[in-house]
Task: structure prediction
Amino acid sequence: MIHPTAIVDPKAQISPDVVIGPFSIIGPNVTLAKGCVIGERVSMNWTRASEGVKIGANTIIGGDPQVYAWKSVPSWVEIGAGAFVNELTVVHRSMYEDGATVIGPECYVMTQTHIAHDCKMGREVTLTSFAGFAGHVEVGDFAVIGGATAIHQFARIGTMAMVGGMSRISQDVPPYFTVAGSPAQAYGLNVYALRKRGVKPAERLALKKAFHILARSGLPISEAARVIEETVELSAPVKNLVEFARSSKRGLTLGGGREKEAAQSD
Result:
């Protein structure tokens, strides 16, 4: 299953059924679990890939972090089961000894995406073509990042959030929000994802009320969080939103964008 032109270091741990395409280079610090498929001309090192991972052509996985004065230490890229990293993508390993850049299970990373050192992607995250992630970015489960979006280092994207294409993200994006623009602004809830993931109508309504308080009241984040707790039914999604807001260190992507309620009504 390994093409004769591929170069595979004998120290790499390769499951017998792994497919490795022409001219790919697999370094000594690589583990490929069963069912992995590595395309042609892939360069990979310092990577642990779980079952069924697919890597597209001309992709670089596990390259050194782009950090001034970085001291070379052992670190990793970890890819969850069933993830698909499409062609021409670059994923850098952690800058910390024994640290990891993480792509979660069932993530779908489209072509020519850049994921820098120490980013953490949750489950079933979709990264659209040409998106760029600076170091230490965290993306929650089921989030979708639009094409050509640039995300500042240390920013967080909450679970089920939707970031529109060509956005500039410099602050945290709250869970369940839809944001877009440069700089990005909040436009409403990601109702499509909420329905798809089984969030009940009553919980969606509570989130909508919380959205208005957090994004439209003009209150400081801490005060808005207090008002939400006092006036909105504290379902699990609302609690998650409040906790995310309170834990933000970069501030939240809110802005004064027009909410598109007609297109996202319950």
